[in-house]
Design goal:
The chain has helices at 8-13, 51-55, 124-133, 255-269; strands spanning 15-22, 29-41, 44-49, 62-66, 79-81, 86-92, 101-106, 122-123, 142-148, 154-156, 165-167, 170-183, 186-194, 212-220, 226-240, 247-253. By secondary structure, the protein is mainly β.
Length: 271
Amino acid sequence: MPMLETVRGDLTDSTVGFVKFLPFQKPTDMVLAGSGTLVSAGGVRAILTAEYVISNLPNSGPIGLIVPTRQGPMRHRTIIYMEHVRKIPIAKGKDDSKGPDIGLFIPALTDWDLLPSGKIFYNLSKRRERMLNDPPPTDKGAWALCGMVAEWTGELPKEKGYEHGKSFNGMCGPVVLANQRQEGGFDYFSVQVAYNESYEGPESFGGCSGGGLWHLLIKERSDGSLEIFDSLLAGVAFYQSAKENDRKTIECHGRRSIYETVVKEFEKRVD
């Protein structure tokens, strides 16, 4: 979808990833531990992700934060310490494929200063009324999934000042909305990718858990061409199915889960 290139930078600005260190290996190794979206509500900043992601991060010691930018690859070492992080597990169901699976990750205030310039916190409060009371029809526009991809992790050559380096790569790629449902106070979107001759995405979406599902609104220009005029955070990915008939389904929380339940958690538990 060529139009996606016009907003890919905007989506990247709010996307982050998590890195776990494996200190018992020499040199210390690193693995991708999930994705998230920078959000704010009521003036408080957080990373919106899957509960599975935050529960699998350590409760103490360092982790890495991947902070992709629209300028392209950037070598960095962004470290935060889990002793100063607030994990807010909003909900986790017994069946991984059905959900719920959503949570918030809130580092110390000083940790936000580590982010490079240009990273954007998507304001949930600003869009709450619209997304709950007058959301755009789901059959209009297009859909994109943004997150880091584990199978695209690579090794970097040694460089002065770094003991060990890895490259973590992600995607903001088109998906198709296949189904939507409500269950147990949460709503869900099921999106799909088709592994056809034009597909350029990953074989597996491992690492995308916690990543953002975006609804891209499209309008027609006066010359008849189309353009994306708005990008709305509409979901949080938490599960990928096995491939079936050359298709794979990614389960995501939907709009009400974010703009009602998550924002209420900001109001109740963040002070």
